[in-house]
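Query structure, 160 tokens:
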């Protein structure tokens, strides 16, 4: 088993508390509404949405992926930190044991936020990740992030 680790940073004009509430805490309601062409639904299949919960993302018809399930490892609304582990689904196939994510939103100093994301891919056997596979996953996450950001800019009273 190998582990490949990636760290990314994204900036946003939205304060950490708003983007955290919208993109993390209420993602199961908001994301499918904002991206129906990509996400059919997000279900909480176990728990209340907090640490220990299991969520299932069902992708839209025509997507190369059908679904993924992930476990919420940490959800801290005071520090704006979120950790989760992808544990089942098409994106893992038989090549990845799991993928873990650690997300932290911090104030940027100009009223906005900086999102720091660390992802760890735990590979099976001697499998090595292809750059284009990792890039595609990052692009999907960034598209969701930008859709939430655009929604919050257009709706300044949402998630305050």
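Result returned for the query:
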């Amino acid at each position: 088993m190998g582990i490949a680790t990636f760290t990314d940073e994204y900036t946003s004009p939205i304060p950490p508390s708003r983007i955290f509430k919208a993109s993390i805490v209420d993602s199961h309601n908001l994301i499918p509404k904002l991206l129906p062409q990509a996400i059919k639904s997000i279900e909480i299949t176990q728990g209340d949405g907090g640490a220990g919960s299991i969520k299932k993302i069902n992708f839209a018809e025509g997507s190369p992926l059908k679904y993924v399930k992930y476990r919420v490892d940490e959800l801290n609304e005071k520090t704006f930190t979120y950790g989760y582990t992808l544990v089942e689904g098409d994106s893992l196939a038989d090549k990845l044991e799991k993928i873990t994510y650690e997300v932290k939103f911090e104030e940027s100093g100009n009223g906005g936020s900086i999102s720091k994301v660390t992802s760890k891919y735990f590979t099976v056997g001697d499998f090595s990740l292809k750059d284009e596979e990792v890039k595609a996953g990052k692009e999907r996450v960034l598209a969701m992030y930008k859709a939430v950001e655009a929604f919050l800019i257009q709706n300044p009273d949402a998630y305050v």
